[in-house]
Specification:
- Helix content is about 75%, strand content about 0%.
- By secondary structure, the chain is mainly α.
- Helix 2 packs parallel to helix 7, helix 3 packs across helix 4 and helix 5 packs antiparallel against helix 6.
- It has one domain.
- The longest helix has about 35 residues.
- Pfam families: ABC_cobalt (PF09819).
- This is HMP/thiamine permease protein YkoE.
- Keywords: Membrane, Transmembrane, Transmembrane helix.
- InterPro entries: ABC_thiamin-permease_prd.
Length: about 190
């Protein structure tokens, strides 16, 4: 059954997409800078994995603020669309990446039956996002040419990044948001 969205939720999702589209653009510039600095050392690929979690934050934030089925996927895809409209050098491919990352996050909430909106589904979502996005990247960029230890390193660094940005940072922001909501009712 399709859940109805309130006008407030639609406006909040649009705001999140606009905001995170800008965050994603910033991550793109940071990625390019890290690539320039780290490629001569042979670490260009690892640099992108360190900040990869920045590109995944819209999904868990949307799911936590709008606790409805599909909000993680929709939040991440709309943020990717905003990034594309802002002029991302990654082009329209960000839409597929956004869908894959959003689906990974959505799985964290599916596993808990959409009954929990706390740390646990964020962790599950970070794992799902890392696995799904890494498979996509592995195929897209031909990671099969790298030795197993490099592939393992890339995966683990990406997982740590997604856990940091998609779990720790989102949890911190939600604590601040909930605290502000309590203060607003005093």
């Amino acid at each position: 059954m399709l859940q109805k969205w309130s006008l407030r939720e639609v406006v909040l999702l649009a705001f999140l997409a606009f905001l995170f589209g800008g965050v994603f653009m910033g991550a793109g510039f940071l990625n390019a800078t890290l690539n320039i600095l780290l490629t001569p050392l042979g670490l260009g690929l690892i640099g992108k994995q360190v900040i990869f979690g920045m590109w995944t934050m819209a999904a868990p934030m949307a799911a936590m603020l709008i606790p409805k089925k599909g909000s993680a996927i929709l939040g991440e895809v709309l943020a990717a669309l905003a990034e594309m409209i802002y002029g991302s050098y990654f082009g329209p491919g960000v839409l597929l990446s956004g869908f894959i990352q959003g689906l990974g996050t959505e799985l964290g909430f599916i596993v808990t039956g959409y009954k929990r909106y706390d740390y646990l589904p964020l962790v599950y979502g970070a794992i799902g996002t890392t696995i799904f996005s890494f498979i996509h990247t592995y195929i897209k960029y031909g990671f099969h040419v790298y030795p197993w230890w490099m592939i393992t390193t890339l995966f683990l660094v990406r997982l740590l990044s997604v856990m940091f940005f998609g779990v720790e940072v989102v949890s911190f922001v939600m604590k601040l948001y909930n605290k502000s909501q309590r203060l607003a009712t005093l």
